[in-house]
Amino acid sequence: MPDTIETAARSALAQVLPQDLPPEAIDPDADLEHLGLTSLNKVLFLTSVCDRVQVGLHHFTEHDLAAMRTLGQVVTALSRHAEVH
């Protein structure tokens, strides 16, 4: 069974953050840049979470990806494209 989008996003984000932060401690409204996420790590994070929840990156434009500035925004954006099982 695939991860829920929020669980997958929290886990993927925790793996690329420079500080050791447990997934459940990540504030969904915190700015990813303020958490220390670099542009490269944002790409790695988004690729990883898309793979985990089976949502293709092709659903998003460069502008869409740039607009995802918080964990909550990523979860909302991915939720619009996730298949319901």
From TrEMBL:
Pfam families: PP-binding. It comes from the Bacteria. SUPFAM superfamilies: ACP-like (SSF47336). Residues 10-77 form the Carrier domain. InterPro entries: ACP-like_sf, PP-bd_ACP. This is Carrier domain-containing protein. It comes from Streptomyces noursei (Streptomyces albulus). The lineage of its organism: Bacteria, Bacillati, Actinomycetota, Actinomycetes, Kitasatosporales.
